[in-house]
Amino acid sequence: MSTKKHRIVTLRMLTASAVVGVILSAASVPASALISAELFNTQNLRRPTPWAWLDYGDHQIYVDQRSDAFYTHWESAIVPDGMEDPPGTEFDRPINDPRPRYARRAYTGHVQSIVSLSAGWPSRAASGRAILDGTPRRTWEDGLYRVTIGTFSHRFPVSPIWTGLLANAIFYATITLALLTGLRLIRTRRRRTRNLCIECAYELGDGIDVCPECGLKARTRA
Ligand SMILES: [Zn+2]
After folding, report:
1. How far does the centroid of ligand 1 lie from the alpha carbon of residue 182, in Å?
2. Which of 8, 74, 102, 202 could bond to 127 as cystine, CB 3.0-4.6 Å?
3. Whole-angstrom distance, CA of residue 140 vs CA of residue 131
4. Which residues have a Cβ under 8 Å from the Cβ of 104 and sit 6 or more positions away?
5. Non-local CB neighbours of 152 within 8 Å, separated by 6+ positions
6. Which residue ranges of the chain lie beneath pLDDT 50?
7. In Å, what is the CA distance from 40 to each residue of 12, 44, 71?
8. What pLDDT shows up at residue 151?
């Protein structure tokens, strides 16, 4: 039998970590939405960064953001010029629109409001929007999925934020790989003290150079 090497990290561990990372990344979205404040009932969330009134000349955008560790709520009201008095000095006036792309919508010339939710931990990984557009006023939802079970009813954001999903997948995969590596090191140490092959747990006699079961060089056990 040919001799082989004992690897601390195997291909199987890498694959398992990647799969777990992807699953946890996706699962973090509904979990975060549930852990956080009830969707659309965001009074308890931290505010306001930013809290802004943006002047685009022909229209103005009021922007409010509230968030906690798991969840971000953007609210934008877009109004044609002159329809609403500009607010007082309590507003910051940032030069750039602070909203991420998923919280925006092209100006249609009407009064508009957009409520955008995003959830996920540690990064926001999915978003959804509720849009109101005027004359005639109509409302619709985009990327929100409602789950109703008995008296429980919740709206979950389901439109993917790919960068967030990827970042979370890497985050969870790294933690999983660290745990698997730790478990493997503990197992290796236990086998070594019991004079078993660290690769396949075959019982090794004294003076054996190569494991007769799997071909691991027994000398590498040191
Ligand atoms: Zn062996």
Report:
1. 20
2. 102
3. 5
4. 76, 97, 114
5. none
6. 1, 40, 221-222
7. 42, 11, 11
8. 84
